[in-house]
Amino acid sequence: MLLAMFGLLFVFGCYEFSSINQPTEGITNSSFDVSLVMKQDADATNDWTSEAGDLMQTGIFGVLLPTGWTVTDNAAVRVESFDAMLDGNGVSQTSTSDHSGDYVLTYQESLTTMLSDSAGAPPAGYYWWGAKSATEVDMAFFDSLYFTISIMTDDQVGDFYLQYTTGDVEYWERNPVHFKSAPMQITIAQGVGVNELLTEDAISVYPNPSYGNLNIDLKSFKGETVDIMIYDIRGRQVRSGQITNAHTMLDLVDIAPGVYVLRMESGEETITHKFLKH
Asked: In the CATH hierarchy, which top-level class contains the domain 200-277?
C-alpha cells in the first residue's frame, strides 16, 4: 500500500512535489523505498527561464526518522527540463542547451542541526536526517525532478510518523527549509522472512561489539548470491561486497569506531543487523 501526498511547496514557491509515495507498512531490521516527484507549481508568474546561471541551486532534503533508523546515502536525482517554455510575462523562451541532468543527494551531518532549527525540533525518539546535492542543480527550463530514498529500520515495532522537507542553499548560505510535509504514518511489524536464507534465526553476526573482525554465518546457505553493505549510523556506505560461503569473516580494522548497520540482500529479501565497532 502506498500513501501519496500532493501539492508540497519547494524552492522560492516556484516548485512543488506532485507526490511522496511512502509505504504504510514495513518490517523490522529491513528497508523500504520512498519515491518523491517534484514539478512546477501552477503560478506562471514565478517561472524562471534564464540561462545566465541564476538558476543553479544547491538543493537540500530532510526526513524526520525514528532514532535508530537511517537512509542509504547518495540518492540519485534526475532533473528533466523543457526545450522551451513561457516566462512570467507569457513570452516564449527557447533553451539554447540541454538543462536535464543527473545529480546526487549526499548526507550532511551539519544539516541535522539546521533542520532542527528551521523545520522544528524533533519529538522525543526522532531525529532529522539531512542531505545536500553534491553539486549545483540546473533548474533552468525545469519540468520535473524525481528520486527515491531507501530507509532502513531497526528492531522497533509500532506506528511511526515520518516527515519530509525540502529547501535550497540561497544567497546567504543559510540552508533554509521551504516546506515540511504533514506526518506520514508507517506501521512496522516484526519481520518474518519468506526466504529461509535471510531470517533472524538463520543468520549469526558476531562478535558484537567487534574489535576488528565481524563473522557472518548463514545456516541455510546453498550457494545463493548475497550482497552486503555496511553503513554508518547516518547512512554513509563504508564497505560493500558479496558473501560466497556459509561462513564469512569481514576485516573491519580500518573503519572508525562507532555504530554501523550491516545490510544483506538476496533477490527480493533484505535484512539488517546493527553492530558496534570498537
From this structure: mainly beta
- Cell for 224? 545463493
CATH architecture under which domain 2-189 falls: Sandwich (2.60)
Q: Where are the domains of the chain?
A: 2-189, 200-277
- Give yes or no for a cis peptide into 209 (omega within 30° of 0): yes
Same fold, 2-189 and 200-277: yes
Read off the pLDDT of each residue in 206-234 and give the average, rounded to a whole number. 89
Ramachandran region, residue 221 (left: φ > 0; alpha: ψ -120 to 50; beta: rest)? beta
pLDDT in tens, 32-58: 999 998 877 666 555 566 676 556 677
β pairing state of 25-27 and 184-189: parallel
Instruction: Show the cell assigned to 30.
Output: 529491513
Q: Average of pLDDT values for 156-162?
A: 96
Query: CB 207: neighbour CB atoms within 10 A?
Result: 13
Evaluate if residue 275 carries a pLDDT over 80.
yes
CB 17 within 8 A of CB 10: yes
Q: Establish how many alpha carbons lie within 13 A of residue 275's alpha carbon, considering only the half-sphere containing its beta carbon.
A: 26
Q: Look at 38-52, 57-71, 72-86, 137-151 and tell me which has the smallest mean pLDDT.
A: 38-52
Q: Is the backbone peptide bond immediately before 123 cis, with ω within 30 degrees of 0? A: no
Please, are residues 11 and 57 in contact by the beta-carbon 8 Å criterion? yes
